């Protein structure tokens, strides 16, 4: 599939934003005293900004962005529509939570926090289902896509909250957040390894023989395409990444989203507790590295996915 | 509304006979011409006379070689027109976030409402048959309309109320009709020739059916070629014997 930058940017940045909102909301729901007011407000603000930038970027992918409001109407059947509705609804508890933090409304923080956590998780879940519900793309239509999107959003959220904690927080949560980021990174790496193995196995379900229905007569080979130049289908669905680059990019993604953040988390336990600058630098490197790794991971998610329509153009297997 | 309507009794669609399609692309050209000027047009091309022209077509004709497992049998060339199959349970309709992509309750035709389409292209991603092509110029998704602006057009002669591709086919490899009515000509044709669905494993239940190529006659091409290699026998006639002697000098 053609890796459209607007869509990749949208899933990565809004994923980080909703992950951040989820973590702040969970912390506030568990115990409002865990985060101080300044840190919680900063995290809510960054989460809302990330989510908004991501949503704005997704509009760039549309041919008629001025009609985007129509996408909120078909939530009964369409995951894209559900995603839009959930994304917008999530802003309400996020803003309510910020208001409550400013007005010291203690008891309500827990319930609104729980609501925000649920909405943020639901939004990322809907994003994942847009892709995993497409039966035409075996690399997306599998059980690892939904947990993958959720885990990567959590990873993005935890590294950015870790950075905020080092920058504006009390530093009390630093070990906890660094540990959370490291655990998320390790889980993401394990999940991605399984995912890449699954994708490499290919798709034995559809073949040029079943696509044309001519398999009963023998093996089917495309000898002439309908057009001599590219068309929309071959550009959009026919994008396939050369395998040797894929292997290299997978390694780079793993180093960036897993190895470096785990290393940074380990350092967070070793660095002198008083040195705010060192802790901030450590968290900053982890956050930037994880986000960059997320971009490459998401780029590969698109670039390596093969669409079944290419069987008509002579693609032998659907394997990546 | 992108929820699928309850199954209609009328299921308009095409039957494509792979036995007699000669791959002339007349259906594709006629489709492009009608729909460029019809109610749903235009179908703009990018860079139409340049080095890399790109444009929307609703109908594409592939050519395949089918090689039998038994090596002594000759391979078969099959021309294969591909267009929207107007599926009974398609995902291209249900994934649409705006309600622009819809299936008509009265006859099952799958259409795009150009005024509602936001150009997210998710419906094209959801179609395994490559039936939908996005127009960069219009910013909306385009697809086969089954010439809905022809088939109900009462200003046309009744015979002309058929899709442009069916009208254009010089070998009558394309047939249009109600596949929901078991007594219709197209349904009988499908029953006679054991018409089939493309990628039935996807579960979209296409309305359009394909008629398989009839088995090719085998055993004529190979012996005829072998016979040509054998020396001719001129001994029967004195005239031929004389000619052979003269020509062999």
Summarize the helices and strands and which ones pair or pack:
The complex is a heterodimer of chains A (320) and B (249).
Chain A: H1 5-30, H2 37-59, H3 79-102, H4 106-132, H5 145-168, H6 174-200, H7 208-212, E1 219-224, H8 232-236, H9 243-270, H10 276-303
Helix pairs in contact in A: 1-2, 1-4, 1-5, 1-10, 2-3, 2-5, 3-4, 4-5, 5-6, 5-10, 6-9, 9-10
Chain B: E1 12-17, H1 26-37, E2 45-46, E3 54-55, E4 60-67, E5 76-82, H2 91-94, E6 101-103, E7 110-112, H3 122-126, E8 132-135, E9 140-143, H4 148-151, H5 164-168, E10 174-178, H6 185-193, E11 209-211, H7 221-229, H8 238-248
Parallel strand pairs in B: 1-11
Antiparallel strand pairs in B: 1-10, 2-3, 4-5, 6-7, 8-9
Summarize the structure.
Chain A is mainly alpha-helical and 320 residues long. Chain A has helices spanning 5-30, 37-59, 79-102, 106-132, 145-168, 174-200, 208-212, 232-236, 243-270, 276-303; one strand at residues 219-224.
Would you mind describing this structure in some detail?
The complex is a heterodimer of chains A (320) and B (249). With 320 residues, chain A is mainly alpha-helical. Chain A has one domain: Formate dehydrogenase/DMSO reductase domain (Formate dehydrogenase/DMSO reductase fold), CATH 1.20.1630.10. Chain A has helices spanning 5-30, 37-59, 79-102, 106-132, 145-168, 174-200, 208-212, 232-236, 243-270, 276-303; one strand spanning 219-224. The mean pLDDT of chain A is 92. By secondary structure, chain B is an alpha+beta fold. Chain B is 24% helix and 19% strand. Chain B has helices at residues 26-37, 91-94, 122-126, 148-151, 164-168, 185-193, 221-229, 238-248, and strands at 12-17, 45-46, 54-55, 60-67, 76-82, 101-103, 110-112, 132-135, 140-143, 174-178, 209-211. Chain B has a three-stranded mixed beta sheet with strand order 10-1-11. A two-stranded antiparallel ribbon of chain B has the order 2-3. In chain B, strand 2 and strand 3 (54-55) form a beta hairpin. The longest helix of chain B has 12 residues, at 26-37. Chain B starts with 11 loop residues before the first strand and ends with a helix. At the A-B interface, helix 3, helix 7, strand 1 and helix 8 of A face strand 3, strand 4, strand 5, helix 2 and helix 3 of B.
